[in-house]
Design brief:
The strands form 2 sheets. Strands 1-4-3 form a 3-stranded mixed β-sheet, with helices on one face. Strands 2-5 form a two-stranded parallel sheet. It starts with 7 loop residues before the first strand and ends in a 10-residue tail after the last helix. The chain is globular, with a radius of gyration of 18 Å. It has a single domain, classed as Nitrile Hydratase, Chain A. The protein is built from 11 helices and 5 strands, in the order βαααααββααααββαα. By secondary structure, the protein is an alpha/beta fold.
Amino acid sequence: MTREHDHIHADDGHDHHHAPPEEVVVRVKALENLMVSKGLVDPAAIDEIVDHYENRIGPHVGAKVVARAWSDEAFKQRLLDNPNGALAEMGVSRLQGEDMVVVENTDEVHNILVCTLCSCYPWNVLGLPPVWYKSTPYRSRIVKEPRAVLRDDFGVAVPDSKEVRIWDANAELRYMVLPQRPVGTESLTEEQLAELVTRDSMLGVGQPKTAAA
């Protein structure tokens, strides 16, 4: 059974395209160089970690999971009932031992993810978190005025007739949104469906691409 944890029901600025501040980048690089020079870190190990997060995990992993759920009703039910087991079927590991919960967008409900305390994020299916997800404005505003944030910051309009649910992650529990399958995609293969799935749609702040796109 899907577990609910610290989620907030709500009915109701930040710029979500900025790169990390230059001073942060410089400080991280300086710290890396210092640790390497003191022999505390192997440069090859750093390269391996970066490659892992840039190329082996990321939104493309979650997109494959969503496409499988869209294509296979039995898998979809397992994903909603037992996310950890269903993800393991697809070779998706639990990077830090955290439990996963998958919440489904429907005609009646729209789900949004946040971590109000820090920046807990489903790394195993979405890779590195975007800067805006970690920002204080997003973390504070999305729980107070979700419809306004979706509309003004992400261009997503949720009708008043649809319930909005906010899911608050923590160190032990991470979430992923299963977006609604776009119309007109009945003839697409699983691989083609995966190309329609966006990172933001799995966070609840965006929609999948259309079949025409």
